[in-house]
Amino acid sequence: AEETTLTLLDTPGHVDFSAEAERALQVLDYAVLVISGTDGVQAHTETLWKLLARYRVPTFVFVNKMDLPGADAAVRLRELRGRFGDGCVDFSAAPDPEALALCSEPLMNEVLETGAAAAETVQTAIARRQVFPVFFGAALRLDGLDGLLRGLQTLTRTPPRWPEFGARVFKISEDAGTRLTWLKVTGGVLHVKDVLPGGEKADALRLYNGGKFRLVSEALAGTVVAVAGPAATRPGQGLGAEADVSAEPVLEPVLSYSLLLPPTEDPRVMLPKLMQLQEEDPQLHIRWDERGRAIRVELMGKVQAEVFRALVKERFDVDVALDAGRIMYKETIADTVEGVGHFEPLRHYAEVHLIMEPMPRGSGIVVDSICPEDGLDRNWQRLILSHVLEKQHLGVLTGSPLTDVKMTLAAGRAHLKHTEGGDFRQATYRAIRQGLMQAKSVLLEPWYAFSIELPPELIGRAISDVRQMSGSFTGPDDAGGMLRIEGSAPVSEMNGYASEVAAYSGGRGKFSCRVEGYRPCHNEKDVIVEMGYDAESDVENIADSVFCAHGGGFNVRWDKVPEYMHL
Fold it and tell me: How far apart are CA 33 and CA 47, in angstroms?
């Protein structure tokens, strides 16, 4: 028999660790999505499915736990086809040619002409994400695994490998004091002691199997290897012929916790240690909160918070606690404004005009320029746009991060003698802030998409809870003796609801949720009052401008700035 080498990258299934799964997807040739035969497609499964589509990963589906009561293959297949399309085809026996014919034109033509589909055509359709082979089994009893493994051997093909060196970093970890860069070689060969693009050396190459590893002298294209040596690599980075993963991650933390240290620990000493953990897992956002004089940790939810505490104990032998956590809000604008910034203390000069307009949810910050080059040299223009993107700008309602805004450079001016790079940074930051002071700002909050299944006599309780949470839902629909409602609700209201469902249903209810994205805040006024942010006294984010007269700089308040502008 032909030998097939499979490298498995296992990722946690829990919703709190979706970001870890997301990073691994960037280096997969194929994915196996495992679904429970009794629970079926949950809210979180849909998140993973969207991520697989986003990174264009060909996908096999394994429906597990088919030995448990209530697991019905026909029901699961119907659900998969309903949720994820007709490409989900049962491959546990010979696949149905009629089902395959619906998946792609080449398959349709072959089935019509010969009554069957050629193996190569099926392979191509899987690689193009037109067919998603579905297998059923019970992993603990090893039922159905032979079929899945045979499928992975016969229905996949080795992706093309390039002759020149390329690799993609997907994870940073630490093993007994050694920093490891996990990467997949996508082209060429990586030898031990090679200097990587960026100037760092690959001191050792480790091939892992579970917790054990062996050292190798080279890693060929297609190999996943942990590299000891580099200190400045980061997840998502491309090396050599591989480009960086440019897309912003889909999943980001929505809860921010204050870290409570034992009295013997100094937060300033603890912070750099925790930054090491952030390097390994970029999903952990750790920062010093100047206003609250505390370390804050941004996480996806309670399970991740527990894992974080255990990790800090294991690595640094410190018992930390986290507070109840607070929602991470964002801000955007609802109208188009022109923001202007001028920075001209003695012997400095820069002026920036930005048109700021609202963008659809999930757009982030987008930049553009309509400034003619005869008005401002292209290098200065590039510099201004890089200043727009280099920092997280804060909104003026609550000081939360700004998002979903397009900033277009309309005009700018430099001085032949006095302009330095830092002058445009000052003018750009002030222009953004001055625009925000004029704009109609909108507070955004994260929302969950949820699914709740309960015995019929309890569904009324869930419906009334969701209404109280300012959520919306569809249903109830029949879910095999249970009733199911699906909908969305603010994270601030629904966070922790899983344990409530478990309690009032005596463990019979099922609750699953995923972060759906940001929407206008359901209780904006209350949150603004509670956060008590004063935009005008935020000295880190200034909306005023500095002009020069009679050999000295003077400050001009943001609402008077347009009267003084030079352009």
Answer: 12
Residues shown for the chain: 567
CA distance 263 to 357: 47
Nearest by Cα to 429 from 338, 545, 562, 322: 545
CA distances from 525 to 105, 233, 418, 537 (A): 55, 43, 45, 20
Dihedral sign, Cα of residue 135, residue 137, residue 139, residue 143: negative
Q: What is the Cα–Cα distance from 439 to 96, expressed in whole angstroms?
A: 58
C-alpha to C-alpha distance for 325 and 73, rounded to whole angstroms = 41
**Which residue's structure tokens are 């994870």?**
171
Taking alpha carbons only, the member of 359, 244, 264, 346 closest to residue 551 is 346
β-bridge mates for residue 558, sequence order: none
In the chain, how long is the greatest CA-to-CA distance? Answer: 90
Per-residue pLDDT tens digits of the chain, which is 567 residues long: 467 788 888 876 666 666 777 888 889 999 999 999 988 888 778 888 988 998 899 999 999 999 998 899 999 999 999 999 999 999 998 899 999 999 999 999 999 999 999 999 999 999 999 999 999 999 999 999 999 999 999 999 888 888 899 999 988 888 888 899 999 999 999 999 999 888 899 999 999 988 899 999 999 999 999 999 998 888 888 898 888 775 556 667 888 999 999 999 888 889 988 988 887 776 678 988 877 788 999 887 777 788 888 889 988 999 999 988 889 999 999 999 999 999 999 889 999 999 999 999 988 999 999 999 998 999 999 999 999 999 999 999 999 999 999 999 999 999 988 888 799 999 999 999 999 999 999 999 999 999 999 999 999 999 999 999 999 999 899 887 889 999 999 999 998 898 899 999 998 898 888 888 899 999 999 999 999 999 999 999 999 999 998 888 899 999 999 999 888
Q: Output the CA torsion 504→509→512→513 (10° steps).
A: -40
Token digits for 120? 């190569």
Rounded distance between C-alpha atoms, residue 9 and residue 178, angstroms? 21
Q: Which helix (H) or strand (E) holds 488?
A: strand 482-490
Q: How far apart are CA 509 and CA 516, in angstroms?
A: 22
